[in-house]
Each structure stands twice: as structure tokens, then as C-alpha cells.
């Protein structure tokens, strides 16, 4: 049975496998017609990858998913393949740069790009963090490449193939010339390798994006043509309408007369909910960036050190204080207990427990 690679069209992760196959002289048949939501959710496909992602490689011994694992499997088809490193330390460094490429380069490019394409919520503080993290990673890569033509040794390895495919995607989609010019050795590295025959055969011509794509809103515009069908009022409904008293107007809270705040709590709550790593650098920094002292106030609740041994006591006392102060609309409480900062909106929007240690 031949090796068969299932993927979607123009998939950078599939390119890693195909370029590795070209360098290794290994034949891989390509099936690049996977349609998300159609092909990848069939029972047959889910047997190959239970979460329905691509690429997936069919082998005589069964399927393999995750692009780095597939690429390594392909290179191992050739004994003493220089793509894997010529010594134990080189093999370890190949794995090192493959991991670095995925966790420090590809991840940051995705955090920058995908919200702009509408695949996840677009939040400026999160984007700023993604760009800062990417710059830090590219600075490290640029420094290494200032004295090295390749990542490991003196020829192309699997580390270079993985790195170039990830960088190529960034150059193609979101990393403009103005951005990448800060990293001249990375630029030289990328353009040198994408023009090598084995890369060019798979990827084709590479053109750098001229501008960062605008952020896409997920909100759909209301349809003016859609009209509600008029409901016929029954005689009984008319009688009930006559009997029922008009609702009494709610008493106005004096604080409702204040001008609206420019801080939108939902924006920060979304940032909080979507932050999975580097919480303090993203979510907490985002809070202070969005905080509007003209429209909100922060209340600090300090408890005795002895009581911090029992978190539930802190929570009970803070809950009582919150209930007593509930009439203060348009305020924010930011309380500290034994384990968390507790940010609570007095507008009835709930609270969030933020680890502080």
C-alpha cells in the first residue's frame, strides 16, 4: 500500500510532509479534496483522525495524524536520512527547532491572523500580545540565523522544512515587508529556501502580503426584508388587555443619569474567557487598558491574614457586602480573597474569579 496524504487544498501543514518527501525521495500520493464539515466528519475519516483534522497519512500500518509526526515518519522511510540530523545532538536540535517553530512562531501567527479572519473574537489587547510574542520569537530566530545558514548543521533538515512552511504562511497572510524587515536574517533564510527546487515544486511562487487583513466582524446585518407576520388579536386577548393594569414605571436610580462609560465590560469578559495562557500579560493587562475611571470605580476588599486560611469565609463576607451595595449601578468591585481577585459588576452581569498568586 502506498502512502496517501489526505488534506485540504493549499495546506501549509501538508506542505511540510510533501517537501520532506521530495528531499527523501519517498512517494506520497496526495488527496487534497477534503472539505471541512463534509468529508472530515464522515465515519471513515474519523477512523483516521478522531477529531477530523488534516493532514492525515494512510500507511500500510495504519493512519498517522499531526503534521510533524507525519513528516518525521516520511523522513524515516530513508535510512540515515540527513533531514533527521547526523548525530544525537543534531537529532535533538532538529526536534528542538521543530517544537520552537510550532509553539513560538506558528502559534503566534495564528493568534494574530485568525481573529482578523473572523475565526475567533478580535480583541486589540490580545492581538498586541500576539505580535509582541511573535517579535520576541523572531528576534531569537534572527540572532541564530545571523551566524547559521540553516537551523541545524550545514544543510537542510526537517527543522528547516517545518520552520519555512510556518514562516511562509505568515509572510503570505499577515507579516508585511514593513514587519519582517526588522528581521533581515529571517528574510534571507526564508527567501533562500522557498526558492530551492524541492520547496518550489510543492509550494510554488511565494508572494509576501502587502497589508495586514482588516478585522472581520462576525455580526450579521439585520435583514430589512424580514417582517414579522401580524398576529391576529382574539376577543379574549382584548378583554385581558382591558382588565390588566399598566405596569408601574420603575424607580430611577440616580446613577443612571450619569453619562455612559466608554468601557464595555463584555469586551473584557470575552478577553478573560478566551485567555488560556499568559493570563496576567493578556487578561489583566487588557483590563487596565480598558478601565475607565470616569465611568467605573474599583473597590478593594481586604481581609485579615488569618481568615485567608478559609476561603469560604472571605466569599461569604464579600457576598454580603456585594448584596448591600447592589444599588450602586455602573460600578465594578475588584475584591481580593485567599485565592482570587473577584471582579463583580453591580449591573447584574455576574462575577469573575481571577487567580492572583
Describe the fold and architecture.
With 357 residues, the protein is an alpha+beta fold. The chain has three domains: 73 residues, Glutaredoxin (3-Layer(aba) Sandwich); 118 residues, Up-down Bundle (Glutathione S-transferase Yfyf (Class Pi), Chain A, domain 2), CATH 1.20.1050.10; 91 residues, no CATH class. Helix content is 45%, strand content 9%. It has 13 helices and seven strands. A four-stranded mixed sheet has the order 2-1-3-4, covered by helices on one side. Strands 5-6-7 form a three-stranded antiparallel sheet, with no helix packed on it. A hairpin with a 5-residue loop joins strand 6 and strand 7. Helix 6 crosses helix 8. The longest helix is centred in the N-terminal third of the chain and has 29 residues. The protein is elongated, with a radius of gyration of 28 Å. The C terminus is likely disordered.
Amino acid at each position: 500500500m502506498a502512502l496517501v496524504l489526505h488534506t485540504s487544498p493549499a495546506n501549509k501543514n501538508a506542505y511540510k510532509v510533501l517537501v520532506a518527501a521530495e528531499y527523501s525521495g519517498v512517494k506520497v500520493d496526495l488527496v487534497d479534496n477534503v472539505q471541512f464539515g463534509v468529508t472530515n466528519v464522515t465515519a471513515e475519516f474519523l477512523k483516521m483522525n478522531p477529531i477530523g483534522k488534516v493532514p492525515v497519512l494512510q500507511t500500510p500500518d495504519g493512519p498517522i495524524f499531526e503534521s510533524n509526526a507525519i513528516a518525521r515518519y516520511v523522513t524515516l522511510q530513508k535510512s540515515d536520512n540527513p533531514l533527521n540530523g547526523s548525530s544525537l545532538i543534531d537529532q535533538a536540535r532538529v526536534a528542538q527547532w521543530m517544537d520552537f517553530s510550532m509553539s513560538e512562531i506558528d502559534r503566534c501567527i495564528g493568534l494574530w491572523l485568525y481573529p482578523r479572519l473572523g475565526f475567533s473574537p478580535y480583541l486589540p489587547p490580545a492581538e498586541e500580545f500576539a505580535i509582541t510574542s511573535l517579535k520576541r520569537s523572531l528576534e531569537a530566530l534572527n540572532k541564530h540565523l545571523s551566524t547559521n545558514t540553516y537551523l541545524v548543521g550545514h544543510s537542510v533538515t526537517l527543522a528547516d522544512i517545518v520552520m519555512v512552511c510556518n514562516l511562509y504562511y505568515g509572510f503570505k497572510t499577515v507579516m508585511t515587508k514593513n514587519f519582517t524587515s526588522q528581521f533581515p536574517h529571517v528574510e534571507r533564510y526564508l527567501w533562500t529556501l522557498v526558492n530551492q527546487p524541492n520547496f518550489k515544486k510543492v509550494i510554488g511562487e511565494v508572494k509576501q502580503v502587502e497589508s495586514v487583513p482588516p478585522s472581520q466582524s462576525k455580526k450579521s446585518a439585520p435583514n430589512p426584508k424580514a417582517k414579522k407576520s401580524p398576529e391576529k388579536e382574539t376577543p379574549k386577548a382584548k378583554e385581558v388587555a382591558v382588565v390588566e393594569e399598566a405596569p408601574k414605571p420603575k424607580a430611577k436610580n440616580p446613577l443612571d443619569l450619569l453619562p455612559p462609560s466608554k468601557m464595555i465590560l463584555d469586551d473584557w469578559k470575552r478577553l478573560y474567557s478566551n485567555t488560556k495562557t499568559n493570563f496576567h500579560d493578556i487578561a489583566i493587562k487588557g483590563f487596565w487598558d480598558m478601565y475607565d475611571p470616569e465611568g467605573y470605580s474599583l473597590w478593594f476588599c481586604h481581609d485579615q491574614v488569618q481568615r485567608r486560611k478559609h476561603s469560604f469565609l472571605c466569599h461569604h463576607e464579600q457576598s454580603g457586602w456585594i448584596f448591600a451595595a447592589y444599588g450602586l449601578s455602573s460600578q465594578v468591585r475588584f475584591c481580593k480573597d485567599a485565592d482570587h481577585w473577584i471582579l463583580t459588576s453591580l449591573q447584574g452581569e455576574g462575577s469573575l474569579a481571577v487567580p492572583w498568586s
